[in-house]
């Protein structure tokens, strides 16, 4: 059984802060700070350009990808790191569309992260395809023989609603449709089994529940049955079969390696690699059970003491990820007042208070303090103060 008091001790968590925003940015793993300092001094500092071979920088995207593979139900050699999540969405979606050239419809839902939809809009425009966006509950009924790709974020970033990946993938395949799953709010938060459900493509970021740090690189997975046929439209130097031959014409590398684009972010990958050490020995079933316990306790506490708030997440924990959202007409100001009192969650427009639960470092005491503080902020009308209504560049 995983001892979550031990995993909590592996993070830098500022005194007097209750941090419930790991679904936006995970806190600093202590090992990452030390590992990056060592890499910069011993590798970059002393090896200079020799670090690409001597320190294995060039193979980092594969090695770190293998570590993430174990958290998402993928196999060795099937995941590669690099670039941003939007770029990986672009690569996966364009490759999937090319595998279904006779079809022109991309199906997604209104709970998908806007950036994914922006990427899909651009691809649809350039390929004369049709992006259809429906309500989350309508997705299954809209899967038909005209659809090329079903593109969904498994866990809705606003509500925490969780799609049934197995059922939707099966329905898609019955209709000859390929699936692309965004695991940004799934990896490290819920049990994912990509090979088990037979998904086709998956992508995800690593700065949320995987604690890789701000701007940490994204990952991409391609089912082995597609790996040698998938052709990324965004073709880069590192995805070439022989990058250091400097051929003028692109020849895709074998398998997932072709999904590499540019030079890997070595410092960021070093931080992520250290962050993934925290997961060694973590039982995902125990983590998920703990997540449900925390979420249910939070919902019960808030509903008992904060009647001004409306639950915006599924009540059934099996139907949501590791976050809970409530609605309030002045959610932004309420959240700013909460943060000022040492409880950090986040706000999503137009009226959502969002709280993430990461059992690696969150416990019952965090839930109870968050409920107490939220009740105080609402009961005292503290959120009405002018300073809590001023918005910065990032909300």
Automatic annotation (TrEMBL):
Pyridoxal 5'-phosphate binds at residues 85-86, 113-116, 153, 182, 185, 207, 237, 263. Its cofactor is pyridoxal 5'-phosphate. Its EC number is 3.7.1.3. Keywords: Hydrolase, Pyridine nucleotide biosynthesis, Pyridoxal phosphate. The modification N6-(pyridoxal phosphate)lysine is found at residue 208. One of its GO terms (molecular function) is kynureninase activity. SUPFAM superfamilies: PLP-dependent transferases (SSF53383). It catalyses: L-kynurenine + H2O = anthranilate + L-alanine + H(+); 3-hydroxy-L-kynurenine + H2O = 3-hydroxyanthranilate + L-alanine + H(+). It comes from the Bacteria. It holds the Pfam family KYNU_C. Pathway: Cofactor biosynthesis; NAD(+) biosynthesis; quinolinate from L-kynurenine: step 2/3; Amino-acid degradation; L-kynurenine degradation; L-alanine and anthranilate from L-kynurenine: step 1/1. Homodimer. Belongs to the kynureninase family. PANTHER family: KYNURENINASE (PTHR14084). Catalyzes the cleavage of L-kynurenine (L-Kyn) and L-3-hydroxykynurenine (L-3OHKyn) into anthranilic acid (AA) and 3-hydroxyanthranilic acid (3-OHAA), respectively. This is Kynureninase. The lineage of its organism: Bacteria, Pseudomonadati, Pseudomonadota, Alphaproteobacteria, Rhodobacterales.
